[in-house]
Structure formats: C-alpha cells, structure tokens
Write a structure and sequence with these properties.
The chain has 167 residues and is mainly β. It has one domain: Jelly Rolls (Sandwich), CATH 2.60.120.10. The chain has three helices and 13 strands, in the order αβββββββββββββαα. It starts with a helix and ends with a helix. The model has no long low-confidence stretch (mean pLDDT 96).
Length: 167
C-alpha cells in the first residue's frame, strides 16, 4: 500500500463532498445557543469541531464557504495551497506546510463567509492536514460554489474558479 492508502486506512477517512478524504475527530459537547451566534445561523451549534483532511495530487477541495472561521493545521506530506477570496475580492494564497523557507506555515485561518478552495502544490504528492471550525461545523452552514455564479461576482478570478469548481 502507498502512503495515501495507508493514511485513509489508518485514520478511517471517508470521501469528502468537496474533494479529498476526511474524518471528524472532535465535536464539542458545549452548545452555543442560536441567539448567542452571529446573524445567519439557523440553530444551535457545537462550540467547535475538528477533522482530518487528506488531498492527493490531482485532486482539489472545490470552492465553498462556511459561516464559521476555519483553522487549518499541517500534519504530513507536502504543501497545500489554500485560495481565499477576501472581503475586497482579492485572492490570498496560503501555503500550508512545513517548509518555512518556502513561505509555508503550519497553521492558517480562513475567515467565516469567505469563498475558498485548496489543492496540493505542484510538487506535492499529498497533503494531510486538520481543520478546526468554531462555532462548530454543520452542513447547514456549508455552501458549495456554482462556477458560473462565482465567476460573475469575481470575473478577474475566472480561470482559478473554473479550475477549482466541480459544477
């Protein structure tokens, strides 16, 4: 078996709807009531959740957004590129990895409600990372981008959006 298959087996990873593999590893028992959450949440949320996330060369995590901040943590493999469309409509590229001389960082935050996608860097065979979400992740807070709609809003990023959307 190769390293990717070993990770999928050892950590019991499942296919993720946005691409790659994942497994939830933590869901806080502490509940935040809806009235204490920012506008836009449709119910109570766990205070925090965490997952393992694996992307192999040639795969990507499609553009999507969630209503919470998402912390990313590097574990193994090579660099992961995270593309974030910020509030000004500009693309920020985060290099998640362990090669600090190459501008990579071990941790990064994607702010709530920002469209983002990720893919292994060109030299990467795979990226094994973790994601922590607070308030905790709920699929009701998840929106997968439609390429045409996102390109209409951000036409200057059309090539990247078209490449990193599944629809």
């Amino acid at each position: 078996m190769n390293e990717i298959a070993d990770l999928v087996t050892q950590f019991q990873l499942l296919p993720h709807p946005e691409g790659g593999y994942y497994r939830e590893t933590y869901r806080s028992n502490l509940i935040i009531n809806q009235q204490s959450l920012p506008t836009g949440f449709d119910g109570d949320r766990n205070s925090s959740t965490a997952i393992y996330f694996l992307l192999e060369k040639g795969n990507f995590s499609a553009f999507h957004r969630i209503k919470s901040d998402e912390g990313w943590h590097f574990y193994a493999g090579q660099a992961l590129l995270i593309y974030v469309i910020n509030d000004q409509g500009e693309i920020e590229v985060i290099k998640l990895g362990n090669n600090m001389k190459n501008g990579e960082v071990f941790q990064a935050i994607v702010p709530a409600n920002c469209w983002f996608a990720s893919e292994p860097a060109k030299e990467s065979d795979y990226c094994f990372v973790g994601c922590t979400v607070s308030p905790g992740f709920d699929f009701n807070d998840f929106e997968l981008a439609q390429a045409a709609e996102l390109m209409a809003i951000y036409p200057n990023h059309s090539q990247l959006i078209q490449r990193l959307c599944r629809q």
